[in-house]
Amino acid sequence: MAKVIEGLYYAESHEYVKVEGDFGYVGITDYAQSQLGNVVYVDMPEEGDEVTAGEEFGAVESVKAASDLISPVSGEVVEVNEALEDEPELINKDAFENWIIKVRLSDKSELDALMDAATYEASCE
Amino acid sequence: MDKKTCLHDKHVALGANMVPFGGFDMPLYYSDITTEHMAVRQAVGVFDVSHMGEVRVTGPEAEKFVQHIFTNDVAGAEYGKIFYGMMLYPHGGTVDDLLVYKMGENDFLLVINAANIDKDYAWISEQIKGFDAVADNQSDHYGQLAIQGPGAEALMTPVLGLECTELTFYTFKEIEVNGETVIVSRTGYTGEDGFEVYGSHDFIRQAWDKLIAAGVQPCGLGCRDTLRFEVGLPLYGDELTDDISPVMAALSMFVKLDKPEFIGRDACAEQKENGIKQKVVGIELQDKGIPRHGYPVCAEGKEIGYVTTGYKSPSTGKCVCMALIDVAYSKLDTPVEVMIHGKARRGTVCKKRFYQKSYKK
Predict the structure, then answer these.
(1) Which end of chain A is more exposed for a tag (fewer CB within 10 A), N or C?
(2) Does B129 reside within a domain?
């Protein structure tokens, strides 16, 4: 059974946001990584890029296919998880620990449109 | 509703991730693609390839007919030989690529792609009119296993009871087992040594069980594609299509223009003589990113073609692809760009054999 973590915000497209102050760490959920299989590459934006809620900002790739990453929030990318460049399989090991981008949230009200852990978990069943 | 092979229930019982392919519900992987891929490169794996089609061509003019529809040259071939080649349309585009087994005097078994069985059988049935020969679609009779990898040879006799290790590459023999005739060939689609076995559904089910019980890794279509791709083998629908001739796919060695006649011969001869506009090449990326089927390939600011198959190669870790591009850019080491998720990623043209084959000759 895929795990979820309380206190995070979840999108229908299986990304999560972990909010710390004005920043959000965005990654894919444990359910998403389990569906993808072995992640072999993560296509990430660069620091300073702007991401927009509901729009694609990169891709997570298994051997077989590329799966678009849809940003659940808007704002400036202040950090990318560089560890994923050399070890994309970290996402399979722990998807919640290994976030993909850190965003300076430009509109925290966007979080209201996302699901809590229990709602997201139910949606995956 | 997708068709099921004779091993379908066993794939489901093993927990395979099942996907539709060529009209069949097939296993994509059992554990994961990389593990299965490396099992075949380093040890041995078994694939259910029962979805492949088989058409038997017999009759006094069977050889004459096969020569007419097939690009390779089977004239006077010895019993037990296998030929790879294509069936072409008159304009040189490809109906399908296939293996032809010489079963006897004027007796051939054509092994065709699952997705093309209906199309091919209709094509063959149409072309055979006027020849003193008959074509019989036996696809539903045969199950088929591919046992692939450096460890394949050591399994055939002890585990399967098939005495076949004397076979050389691209030859086969028929073996009597419990009153039925089983075909065993030294062939495959992985770039490794290995065998393919054709038999009744009962025989194939028992053989599968014996291999799984012996600890052989079951392998799905996911690694079948990465394995064939790494050694530059084409997949119909990607590197060969009804618009891509074998000359364009850089497979001219299987097109015997010294044969006086076959369908598509003149078109291929013309392409060899006057040159082609587009060609299938290999591309290795220097930038990061994984090229996928259909992604545009560019050079000097313009689009010059598209990716036919691409992966992060499980054996080498490199991001590589085959692509159909303008011949002006097809020389080795030519710089090109592949558009990946809207960004231009730099690469260079290379040989489309990304990994060295290791066949037993």
Answers:
(1) C
(2) yes
